[in-house]
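Record type: monomer structure entry
Structure origin: computed from sequence
Chain ID: A
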Amino acid sequence: MNLGTAKNPVLKPLEDILKGADGIVNLEGPVTEHLPTGKKLKLMNAPEALPQLLNAGVRVAGIANNHALDAGANGPQQTVQALQSAGIKPSGGPVGPAVYSVGGVHIVIAAYDLTRGVPPKLKEELEWESGQGDILVASFHVDGAPSYLPRPGLRSAVKVAVKAGAKIVVAHGTHAIGPVERQGKSVVAWGLGNLVFACDCTKEREGLLLEVSLRGGEIDTASIIPIEAGLQGEPARMSSDPNGVFDLLEGIGSAKLVRKGPRADF
């Protein structure tokens, strides 16, 4: 997700369905007061936009992505400080994994950018991170044209993550949604699509919220909720055709979805 200046309450329409849930997002681009300049596309998130993340239940924001350095070498550290000041835990980049505790369960959130390939020490890092809490969440950012199907590098990273003990594995970055499935005791979402994106660099309106409930150190239930992404300052909202999205997801290889109105279990 990318907030830009976010003058409009872009997450407000989702607050009812998110109420009571503790959220994790990928925050694309640094937190900075001014839009970075340059020939290449650069993203930013205004500091004053961060409170609406907190209001929507976001507690952890991954910052490992291909736009992390858009505000320069100090951008990641500035982003870390801004998120911490807003009451949100950063994950990835200079701070490594975040640990968030809820209901006595310690959740480790590890965020990685796969833009330059699978990190050579991913296996060792994930195995160590898996031992730092009860549940390991592995979040992978990939770059490239929108695609419903996972790229080979992402497939390799997910295989490593599941083997290392990650119970929840998510991917984002191509702006397209992807299949969802169970792999043993792990839940994998191959592409969450867009949530909100301020710049005019994407037209992909399909997005997914992944909702997971935990029982101790194991996954109890897993559901997906289709949304219509908030693009260029528009608010995100519930999908007007969730069954169409469910049909698509099953058509591209998802697990069988148990449909329950605007959401589906798998």
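Annotation 1: The longest helix spans residues 152-164.
Annotation 2: The first strand starts at residue 23 and ends at 26.
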